[in-house]
Write a structure and sequence with these properties.
Structural class: mainly alpha
Shape: elongated
Number of strands: 0
Strand content: under 5%
Low-confidence stretches: 22-29
CATH class: Mainly Alpha
Largest sheet: none
Number of domains: 1
CATH architecture: Up-down Bundle
Length: 155
Amino acid sequence: MNIMKQTAVFLLLAGIAVVPMLQAKASAHCQVPCGIYDDYARVESMLEDAATIKKAMRMINQLAGESDAQSKNQMVRWVMTKEAHAEKIITTMSSYFLTQRVKPSQKDYSQRLIKHHAVIVSAMKAKQQVDMAYVKTLAKEIEALEDYYSSGHDH
């Protein structure tokens, strides 16, 4: 099988493997004002997710030229890992930060909205690609939120 056919088969198998993950209900945290959620920890967690995506991309690129069954198996697992961590970032941003922390009453609301949305878009692009530039952008976009959610930030 030539590399194009192998890639097409791989993408099909990866897509089939990912569909059940997309159907799972994600729970970033409750949407009631419980006051126990640590915003800074969530930002740090998203940076860990970005680091995992980076490693997954590196491994996918490393395994791309291999044709043995074990390498293909590992590649699919890395694709699934990359997808899961990108989705985790998207869910945290949309289900927690955008619904509970970014508010129209904030004087810099538009700027906050833009920065938070940029993380979602970068995570989506990191899901779709294996170019390291996408995950570098994602990490920078997440880091841009640190000023809003420093470890001493009050709710």
